[in-house]
Amino acid sequence: MKQGILIINAGSSSIKFALFPHTHPLAREAAVCGQIDGIGTAEIRLQAKNHAGDSVADHTLTGAHASHTEAFAELLRWFTASQAEWTIVGVGHRIVHGGDRYSRPVRLDEAALEQLTRYIPLAPLHQPHNVAGVRAIQSLLPEVPQVACFDTAFHRSQPEIAQLFGLPRSISAEGIKRYGFHGLSYEYIARTLATHSSRAEGRVVVAHLGNGASMAALVGRKSVATTLGFSTIDGLVMGTRVGTLDPGVVLHLMETKGLGVKEMTQMLYKDSGLLGVSGISQDMRTLLASDKPEAQQAVDLFCYRIVRELGSLAAAAGGIDALVFTGGIGEHAAEVRRRVCLHCAWMGIYLNPEANARHDLRISAHNSSVDVLVIPTNEEWMIAYHAQTLLGL
Ligand SMILES: Nc1ncnc2c1ncn2[C@@H]1O[C@H](COP(=O)(O)OP(=O)(O)O)[C@@H](O)[C@H]1O
Ligand SMILES: CC(=O)OP(=O)(O)O
Ligand SMILES: [Mg+2]
């Protein structure tokens, strides 16, 4: 039997998974990876591919609205039947919120799980599903040790001032502060950057542009500032999340429209962002392909907010030596990178248009004083690495 480490990244409507062979050193590529999506709808779809990128599963299950637990059960049923040569020796989870308590990965026990359950209101789109993922594995594979890797942990290196809101001290003391997210992605980029750029130890801004999107400033490969804050709605405009918003707007809407917490949560997390502004889609591919002015305005706002935050993060880092694009949009949308960099010439950022169109690793022009790079992120590998290390596998 081959031994493997299973990685779970449970989102609101999908569960991404990857299986890494338990080898030393850990291979960069998973032996199998894929996702189940459509959770909560009448049709869930399981897709998986092997390390060569060939499809090894693509089937849909129709019927009752499947829950996360049912989706996990389906995933493990498929896994046990089709990947019989593997024994799972450890499971690593991406957990979005580790609060004030967790600044590094932790082996999961009942006490830790209860603590993570308490953080559910802090990340309602992610944390309930993260916790449900751990519970599902616990009941299906009770003997297998599980590790939690936190999106917030990498940002705990930030200076206190970068984490502080201008709120009364007593409120800040309750843990109401800027946590930051996408830490596993930033940690992966920080680890791999040195192989691609001599500027890795310098002042680096990383733009993680996916359905959830954020940016972080790194100095000496440590996070010093980031755009996501207390919750996963701050900073950039995202797929369905609003990004930075004057809190006065929230007060005004609650007051004048009588909206409650539930309605505001729905609006700020699910009905805003690219979807809300365009009225068409949350998917960047759809918006880039559309000639509707609302779609173009949504893309323009997305890019404008990146440019604004880039200036702010460069200020926090004391300058900028390298800019890294990653995440689904950062890695694949040359047009978004083009629109962003066009407005950053004042910082010495110049693109090589051909390299950008080819999605080359280095897309900056020779005269650019800032290295501009496209680096595919690999949060799953980062989790597998932590799980292997922590479990002493
Ligand atoms: N070829 C592409 N061109 C433009 N956008 C793309 C492309 N491929 C993926 N995307 C965008 O990437 C986003 C999803 O990114 P991803 O990092 O997978 O998200 P998440 O992990 O947050 O669910 C979607 O908005 C999608 O439209
Ligand atoms: C924290 C966050 O926004 O995560 P995701 O990009 O997976 O939605
Ligand atoms: Mg993601």
UniProtKB/TrEMBL annotation:
Metabolic or biological pathway: Metabolic intermediate biosynthesis; acetyl-CoA biosynthesis; acetyl-CoA from acetate: step 1/2
Superkingdom: Bacteria
InterPro entries, sorted: Ac/propionate_kinase, Aliphatic_acid_kin_short-chain, Aliphatic_acid_kinase_CS, ATPase_NBD
Binding residues for ATP: K16, H208, L209, G210, N211, G212, D283, M284, R285, G328, I329, G330, E331, H332
Membrane-traversing stretches: none
UniProt catalytic activity: acetate + ATP = acetyl phosphate + ADP
Subcellular compartments: Cytoplasm
Residues holding Mg(2+): N9, E379
Cofactors: Mg(2+); Mn(2+)
Major location category of this protein: cytoplasm
Enzyme Commission number(s): 2.7.2.1
Catalytic residues (UniProt): D151 (proton donor/acceptor)
Keywords noted in UniProt: ATP-binding, Cytoplasm, Kinase, Magnesium, Metal-binding, Nucleotide-binding, Transferase
Keyword Cytoplasm: yes
Cofactor note: Mg(2+). Can also accept Mn(2+).
Molecular-function GO terms, alphabetical: acetate kinase activity; ATP binding; magnesium ion binding
First-tier enzyme category under EC: transferase
GO terms classed as biological process: acetate metabolic process; acetyl-CoA biosynthetic process
Keyword check for Transport: no
Binding locations of substrate: R94
Pfam families: Acetate_kinase
One GO cellular component term noted in the UniProt record for this chain: cytosol
Function: Catalyzes the formation of acetyl phosphate from acetate and ATP. Can also catalyze the reverse reaction.
Family (UniProt): Belongs to the acetokinase family.
Name of this chain's protein: Acetate kinase
Native source organism of the sequence: Rhodocyclus tenuis (Rhodospirillum tenue)
